[in-house]
Amino acid sequence: MKKIDLYIIRRFLGTFFFTLALIIVIVIIFDISEKIDDFIKHQAPLYEIVFHYYMTFIPFFVNMFSPLFTFIAVVYFTSRMAYNTEIIAILGGGISFRRFMLPYLAASLFIASLSFYLSNFLIPVTNKIKHDFEIHYLKNRYVSSNYNIHVQNKPGEILYVESFNNYDRIGYNFTLEKINKQGLFYKMKADKIVYDTLTGKWTIFNYVIRHIGKNGDVFEKGKKIDTVFNVKPADFSSKLQPIELMNFFELRQFIRDEKIKGSEKVKFYEVAKHKRIAFPFATIILTFIGVSLSSRKLRGGIGLQLAFGIIISFSFIVIMQISTVFATFGNLTPWIAVWIPNFIFAILAAVLIYKAPK
């Protein structure tokens, strides 16, 4: 590694972390002004506010803004190098444009690896800490007010509760129906169903089971029975599962379980899973676009190049949002939807690199 490589990497990472630190400070200031009354009202300790809320806040925003601020950082300091004719001197010294891009690649790989680690391993941990703080000091305990809830346990098995209390994990007027190709062959009705967090089992109270057969129906009654379902208490809520609390491996196992249950929300979870991988790659692609755009000296100066950079950044975000909507509410495959912006901008990066001054 040469001095010029270290120089570019220092400028790249220094500009990236400086701009990121500025936006995080601004966000925290606005958040404090919004939540200061809640902190005082619930008597939140200063230590927990700092370390259980705002310190867990930082990894989330670093990951959220990393592709955008990587791109802006690259455009800003590279355009300054071009404006000061540093790039002309580098290329004139016999260094090819591809060789010139190597330190950019190294720095972007570091940021992409950091983003992958944050989104898949660190942020789920910090989100749990932040979630517990919010429940204790900012939010009331959630009690579901949903009624007439149907959930699929697995293909051919439908669970129903008239109402479900998420805090106590109790469902009332429970029904389990099993269906095969011939139709309904099993039906259980019960007064209530309770989830045990220690054993992971459901306890069913005052149940009546009806076995439906060709030779007539057989009934079975009981006061109490324990059983296991694929369904968990959160499945009886209309809210999506808290996938932001799951790490790389937990999310994949969760999606496999949801597919077994035939959940209608699988596409949402698949999109979230692929975003955790696609976003780090976006950092590398946007870096190459930024270098190609800002490596030449323009009459409009740095401001014009920054304007182009911001337009491209927001174009990337818009395309990402549109494609994920088609995946979650349409027939587009989730991984294709998430990776479409990367494919499009990778082609743009290749064209810009080809046309960049050598």
Number of domains: 2
How far the N terminus sits from the C terminus, by CA atoms, comes to 21 Å
Run of helices and strands: HHHHEEEEEEHHHH
Question: Which percent band covers the strand fraction?
Answer: 15-25%
Main beta sheet: 6 strands, antiparallel
Itemize the secondary structure elements and their pairings:
Elements lengths: L2 H39 L4 H38 L2 H7 L4 H42 L8 E8 L2 E9 L4 E11 L2 E13 L6 E12 L2 E12 L20 H14 L4 H29 L6 H29 L4 H22 L3
Antiparallel strand pairs: 1-2, 2-3, 3-4, 4-5, 5-6
Explained architecture:
The chain is elongated and about 90 Å long. It folds into 2 domains: 3-139 and 266-355, no CATH class; 147-237, no CATH class. α1 (3-41) packs antiparallel against α2 (46-83) and α1 packs parallel to α4. Residues 140-145 have low confidence and may be disordered. It is an alpha+beta fold. The protein has a 6-stranded antiparallel β-sheet with strand order 1-2-3-4-5-6. It has 8 helices and 6 strands, in the order ααααββββββαααα.
Structural descriptors:
six-stranded antiparallel sheet; 358 residues; single chain; elongated
